[in-house]
Specification:
It is a single chain. Helix 5 (202-216) runs parallel beside helix 8 and helix 9 runs parallel beside helix 13. Helix content is 35%, strand content 19%. The chain has helices at 42-52, 90-105, 126-139, 170-194, 202-216, 225-231, 234-240, 293-308, 353-368, 381-387, 399-412, 423-426, 445-454, 485-496, and strands at 5-8, 19-24, 63-67, 76-81, 111-114, 161-164, 219-223, 248-255, 263-267, 269-273, 313-323, 335-337, 343-345, 372-377, 392-396, 416-418, 436-437, 461-466, 472-473, 479-480. The protein contains 14 helices and 20 strands. With 497 residues, the chain is an alpha/beta fold. The strands form four sheets. Strands 7, 8, 9, 10, 11, 14, 15, 16 and 18 form a nine-stranded mixed sheet that branches. Strands 1-6-5-2-4-3 form a six-stranded mixed sheet, covered by helices on one side. It has a three-stranded mixed sheet with strand order 12-13-17.
């Protein structure tokens, strides 16, 4: 993905850019913070006249391009509606940025002077708006252009450079770097998740991790089937045994803080999920290529870490496999022994994500002794029923990590909603034939899935993110969203101080 050259200039000369982006409120007024850009009030007068004539009302997300306006000094001005100033929210502000990015993409703009950063919701500092603008404009360049698209003509953005109409402060520079790095990480996540499963195999995920290691200096290690069988990963290997495609356990390590105990990220990497013997319905099964959204998120976060280089240690463990029906596939009623030694009665082979994650959670504790673990997975359809497609589910065995993740979600508008854990849901996992069953019935399906994973994380601070409703969208705009890369990156940077 082409990178935008971002910079700061609080008083740029008009001959240094070809396009000006101005925020406009619903009353037909420019923000007071834009006075330095419009000292003689020419643009303010123009905006007021457009408002009076109902040509541009400043409604949220509406844009208007004015070529060679009356001030005679600007080649092109984009007016971007923010709605009523007193009602400016995170959502409306982000809607406005996205609309501006779309409008500029469909113009001839090459160098942009962006005054949107001079406005933000009341409770947010300017660095917040800088980060959001950098992330949204950079992400607007994303285009899925894999070879399998055939005659697809990839995007060729004309925009090269963007100056933010504010001072170059340490806070703004940091926000800019985070926004752009997050967008680049999201693009990798989207590419991997959008790729057909005959291309994005466990081996491809492993190769992607190795490439990230080469590019950014991460330590990378890939475990093969034979090694995992020898270690005793009976739960993960039970899922993998139904496919001829070799499974992989993908490990990455970013060292930025000496011997400090790392934060571990674990991502579900089911590159295609048929449901196994408990076969899914055929309609919509193509979208089960997205069942590796957790793995894709972890790799996207690591790309952002490579760009930002924070002073912290982070490790990643990704169990990657297909879940297929075959003569070798696990069956409902089978009992397997996990790496932890706990036995599991498999009542539904379509509840496979937790079966591969439990061994990964045990492995990451044994190998890296992390201070905290965050796993992320497109784990349950029940989460979509509970929360829709707007927020991701969050469960944790420690309220501090839950609160920190909730705050990171609010900061990035990549939000989470905390759901409970407890003995009542744990009791639903009882089995007459093993230490536990892999499902707990229809009631509270998202919670019982989290409760299952909690049995493997009793001795470490742990949080679970169910991203089944947020990792991709269906319909005419079907595709991966890149979530929750923004929130996880924000969380990690906050932990790094």
């Amino acid at each position: 993905m082409k990178r935008i050259s971002f910079s700061f200039n609080s008083a740029a000369a008009t001959n240094s850019y070809d396009t000006l982006v101005l925020p406009v409120f619903a009353d037909g007024k420019l923000a007071d913070t834009c006075q330095g850009i419009d000292p003689d009030k020419t643009l303010s007068t123009l905006v007021s006249e457009l408002n009076e004539n109902a040509d541009f009302t400043g409604k949220v997300g509406k844009t208007l391009m004015v070529m060679q306006p009356v001030d005679g000094t600007h080649k092109r001005v984009f007016l971007v509606g923010l709605g009523k100033a007193e009602e400016l929210t995170f959502k409306s502000y982000l809607s406005a940025i996205k609309a501006a990015a779309s409008a500029i993409e469909n113009s001839g703009a090459q160098t942009v002077y962006n005054a949107l950063v001079l406005v933000q919701p009341a409770e947010k500092p300017q660095a917040w708006s800088v980060r959001q603008n950098a992330q949204v404009f950079q992400q607007s360049f994303y285009d899925y252009a894999h070879e399998s698209r055939g005659e697809h003509h990839p995007k060729d953005p004309k925009l090269n450079a963007m100056m933010f109409a504010t001072e170059e402060t340490p806070e703004n520079l940091s926000a800019l770097a985070q926004g752009q790095a997050t967008a680049l990480g999201m693009a990798l996540t989207q590419d991997l998740a959008n790729m057909p499963s005959n291309f994005c195999t466990p081996a491809h995920l492993a190769d992607t991790a190795l490439e990230l290691g080469k590019t950014y200096g991460f330590e990378a290690n890939i475990l093969e089937r034979e090694q995992m069988l020898e270690m005793g990963m009976g739960s993960f290997m039970a899922v993998a045994q139904g496919s001829v495609t070799p499974p992989k356990m993908i490990c990455l390590s970013y060292q930025g803080a000496g011997d400090e105990a790392p934060i571990a990220l674990v991502g579900k990497g089911v590159t295609f999920d048929t449901g196994g013997i408990s076969l899914k319905p055929g309609a919509g099964m193509d979208e089960m290529k997205y069942d590796m959204g957790g793995a894709a998120t972890v790799l996207g976060v690591f790309k952002a870490l490579g760009e930002l280089k924070p002073k912290m240690n982070v490790v990643a463990v990704i169990p990657a496999t297909e879940n297929m029906p075959s003569g070798n596939a696990i069956k409902p009623g089978d009992v397997v022994t996990s790496l932890s030694g706990q036995t599991i009665e498999i009542l539904n082979t379509d509840a496979e994500g937790r079966l591969i994650l439990c061994d990964a959670l045990t492995y990451v504790q044994q190998t890296y002794q992390p201070a905290k673990i965050i796993d992320m997975a497109t784990l349950t359809g029940a989460c979509i029923i509970a929360l829709g497609n707007h927020v991701s589910g969050l469960m944790a065995n420690d309220q501090t990590i839950a609160d920190d993740l909730l705050q990171a979600g609010l900061e990035t508008y990549d939000r989470f909603w905390q759901m409970p854990l407890g003995e009542e849901w744990d009791e639903q996992l009882k089995s007459n034939f093993a230490d536990m069953a892999n499902i707990g019935g229809r009631a509270g399906g998202t919670i019982t899935a989290g409760q299952f994973l909690a049995r493997f994380t009793k001795d470490v601070t742990w949080a679970h993110l169910d991203i089944a409703g947020t990792a991709w969208v269906s319909g005419d705009n079907k595709g991966a969203t890149g979530r929750p890369v923004p929130a996880v990156v924000q969380y990690l940077l906050t932990q790094a101080g």
